Amino acid sequence: MPSRRRIRRPPDSVARLLVAGATPDGIVIPTGYDAIDALLSAGSAR
User: Fold this and answer.
1) How far apart are CA 34 and CA 40, in angstroms?
2) Helix (H) or strand (E) holding 34
3) I want to staple 11 with a disulfide (CB 3.0 to 4.6 A). Which of 22, 29, 35, 41 is the partner?
4) Is residue 31 part of a domain?
5) Is 80 exceeded by the pLDDT of residue 8?
């Protein structure tokens, strides 16, 4: 049985949270998802 951790999810939910005003404070980068890392890095530059 394949591991569920191998399933990659799109970063849409993270993008929506950042647009809504969430901050990436306390999140350790790299997360293991390149697209999410890019969003979080851009969000911390605000």
Assistant:
1) 10
2) helix 34-44
3) 35
4) yes
5) no
Question: What is the per-residue pLDDT for 44?
Answer: 67
- Domain membership of residue 39 (yes or no) is yes
Only one residue has tokens 């901050």, namely 23
Give the count of alpha carbons within 13 A of 39, CB side only. 21
Rounded Cα–Cα distance for residues 8 and 15 (Å): 15
The domain total for the chain is 1
What is the DSSP-derived secondary structure letter of residue 27? Answer: -
- For residues 46 and 32, what is the distance between their CA atoms, to the nearest angstrom? 22
Token couple for 12: 């849409």
Residues spanned by the domain of 24: 11-44
Examine residue 25 and state whether it is found in any structural domain, yes or no.
yes
